[in-house]
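Aim 2, interim progress: modelling of the 2-acetamido-2-deoxy-beta-D-glucopyranose-bound target.
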Amino acid sequence: MKNVKIIHLPQLFVFFHACFAQADFAPHFYDNGPYSQNGNLALFSLSEDTPVGTQIYCLNGTDPEGQEVSYGLSFDPGSKEYFRVDSKSGNITLVEKLDREKQDSIDVLVSITDGQSKVVERVTIFVMDANDEKPDFQNMPAIIDIVETTASGSSIYKVEAVDRDTGSGGSVTYYLQNGQSTLFAIDRHSGVLRIKSGEMLDYEKTKTHFVTVFAKDGGGNFNGKEQFLSSSSTLTINVIDAQDTPPSFIGTPYFGYVYEISVPGSEIFTVVAKDGDVGNPNPICYTFEDGDDGVFSINKTSGCITLVTLPIYLKREIFNIKVRASEVSPEGRLMDYGVTTVVIRVVDLNNNPPTFYGENGQQNMFELTMYEHPPEGEILRGLKITVNDSDQGANAKFNLRLIGPGRMLRVVPQTVLNEAQVTILVEDSAAMDYEKHHFLTYKLLAVEIDTPERFSATADIVIHLLDTNDNAPKFASDYYIARIPENSPGGSNVVSVTATDPDSGPWGDVKYSIYGSGADLFLIQSESGIIYTQPWASLDAEVRSKYNFYVKAEDAEGKYSLAEVFVTVLDLNDHPPAFNDNFLEKTMVIGAPVKIEAVDDDAEVPNNVIEYAIMKAEPDINIFDINADTGEIMLKSYIKSMAIIQNITKQRDFTWSLVVQARDRGQPSFSTTAVVKIDITEAVSYNKEYVNNNIHIKSFQFAIPEATSPRPPN
Ligand SMILES: *[C@@H]1O[C@H](CO)[C@@H](O)[C@H](O)[C@H]1NC(C)=O
Ligand SMILES: *[C@@H]1O[C@H](CO)[C@@H](O)[C@H](O)[C@H]1NC(C)=O
Ligand SMILES: *[C@@H]1O[C@H](CO)[C@@H](O)[C@H](O)[C@H]1NC(C)=O
Ligand SMILES: *[C@@H]1O[C@H](CO)[C@@H](O)[C@H](O)[C@H]1NC(C)=O
Ligand SMILES: *[C@@H]1O[C@H](CO)[C@@H](O)[C@H](O)[C@H]1NC(C)=O
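Predicted structure of the complex, ligand included:
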C-alpha cells in the first residue's frame, strides 16, 4: 500500500498510510495567489454558453519527490458530471451543457496523486450568466373587461414579463406594437397600460380591442456576441357597455286617433322605446310628462296609451302628449330617459248638422213684434235662439249669417264652436220702417265651415213692425206757384196743395192752414188743401200782382211741414192807351223829329206795350214817317228843305195836321188817336220856344176798343 501523508489544510482529506520508517511527501496543486490561475480549479467560473467539448481548465500540481502525478475528478453522487479530466495532462473538458438558470455552481472533487499519496480537494465552480433567456410574460395572454366610461388616462392593467437572465440581459422594457393603438399607451418600465389621455372607450364603436405588448431585455453576451431578446403577448380588452345612452323611441313620429266610437279603455296608440345601451339594455318604463290632460293613461310596461273618458268629454281636437321612456335600473330606479311627442287627434264623424233651438226645443221659425225704428244696437231680446252642433272640433264649427232685406239686422256671433246663444241686433234703425215693410223676413243660416259635408240649418225670423208717428206730412213740392187773373170774383180757386203722411190712422191725417203776410186775401180748405180767394177779395194786377205765404200741413199730433205759395195776379188788358192830350201842336225843324207819347195803365206787357201809327194827314200828302215803338215823327228822309216841301205841295203853307194812333198789344187790343198839328220851319228861323219840341196839349180824349184778333171771352 502507499505511504500516508498528513496534510494540514482545511477541506482536505487526510489519508493515513501504514507508518513506514521512511516518510513519503504527498503531491499538491500549485497555489498561485488570487490573481493568477491556481492549479486546482479554485475560484474558477465558467460562462454557461461554453460549448460542450471545450477544454476549460488544466489541473496543475507537483510532487515534492518529483514523482509523476496524475489527476482525478469526481462529483457528489447523484449530481451531473459536467467535466472530464485527462489524468496525465490535467486538461478538463466540458462534457455536459451548462444552464446557469438551472444550476449556477458545480461542486467538484479534484484529486492529485503521486502513486503513493493522493490528495483530494473539493472546489466549487461558478456558472456565469449569458443572455440566453427571453422575457417571459406572466399571466399572459390575458382578457380584461373595462367599462366604457373609464376615465381617460386611467391605468387599466399591468403587464409583467420576467427575464431570468442577470444584469441588463435580465432587465425588461415594454412597448406596444408600432402605432397599433391610438387608444392605449404603456409605461415602458412599469408595464402599466393606460387609456391615453384625451381618449375614451366607446362600446358603441368597438366592443373588443386586441393589444399586442412587447417585452424586450436590455441585451447581453451570448456566444461571444451581444444579443437582445424579446417576446410579445396579446391583451384582449373587452369594452363593457355602460348605461350611457338614454332609451330612444322607435318609429316616430307618433300619431294616434280618437274616434267618436272610442270608449274608456280604447287603445289609442302604443309607443316603443329601446334602451340605447344595447349591449346591456335595461327595461323601459313609460310615463306621461304632460299634455294628456288626465284623459289618457299609459301602460308603464307596454307603452300602450288608452283613453280613460268618453270622447265627447275631450276638450281639444289635438293632444300633444309628451311621453317619457325611462330605463329602469336592476334595483328598480328610474335612470336615463328619452322623450317623444304623441299627437293624438280627436276624429269626429261629423254626423250632426247645426241645429236651432228655441225655448221649447228645436225650432225653425222665430217671430217677434216690435215698434218700427228701434234704437241702433238694440238687441231683439224677444228672440230666444240658441244654436248648437253636437260634433267635435272642426266638425262643430260653423258660421251664422242673416239673410234678408238691407242691413237692418246683424247676428252675433258670426262664428260658433259647438254652441252659442244667437243675438240679433239692430243695425239700421231708419230702414226698419213700418211704412216700407209691415214685417221683415230673414233667414238665419248656420253653415259648417271646415267640413266636407258643409251641413247647414236655416231658421225663419219674422219681425212684425208696429207703426209709430214717425212721419210728418210732406208736401208734394216745396213751393206752389199759382196764377189768377185779375178781376177774378171772390171765392175763385187759386191752387190746390197736397201733403201726404204715410203713418197710419190719425198720424196720417193731414190738416192744412195758411199764414203769412200775403195770405190775407186767401183761404184754404183744411181737409182738401184747396186755396181760394176771400169772398170779398178783388185782385188788381195794377195794384198788387204778387202774393206769397206759407201753407202748413199738420197731422193729429202736430207734426207738420211747410210749403210756400206764390200767387201771381195775371194782368188783363183792361186799360187803353191814352195820350195826355188828344190835340197836340208841334213845331218841326227840318232834320229833327218830334215825339208824341201815350201811356197804358195795364200792369204788364203786352197789355201796356204801345204801337204808334199815322192814320191820316192833312194836307193829304204824306211826307212823314212815325217810329212805331217810340212815337217819334220825322220827315221822310229825302225832304231836306222847305223848297222840297214847297215843290211837293205846291203851296206856301207848311202846317200839317196828322191823326196818330196809339194801340196796345193786349188781347183784345185797345187804341186811341190824337190829332197832332205840326209846323215845319227851317232850322235857322226857329223860335226858342220850339227848340225842345215842347208840346202844347189841348185835351180831348176818346177811346176806341178795337178787337184786332177777337177771342171768345174767358
Ligand atoms: C505548472 O505550474 C508551474 C509553477 O507555477 C509552472 O511553472 C508550469 O508552467 C505549470 N504547468 C502548466 C502546464 O501550466
Ligand atoms: C493539454 O492541453 C494543453 C493546452 O491545450 C496542450 O498544450 C497539451 O498538449 C495537452 N496535454 C495532453 C497530454 O493532452
Ligand atoms: C300593461 O301591459 C302589460 C303587457 O301587455 C299587461 O300584462 C299589463 O296587465 C298591463 N297593465 C295594465 C295596468 O293594464
Ligand atoms: C243644444 O241646445 C239645446 C238647447 O239649449 C239643448 O237642449 C241640447 O241638449 C243641446 N244639444 C247639445 C248636443 O248640446
Ligand atoms: C221843283 O220842280 C221843278 C219842276 O218839276 C224843278 O225843276 C225844280 O228843280 C224843283 N226844285 C227843287 C228845289 O226841287
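Residues 30, 58, 60 surround 2-acetamido-2-deoxy-beta-D-glucopyranose (ligand 1) (CB under 6 Å). Residues 642-649 form the longest helix (8 residues).
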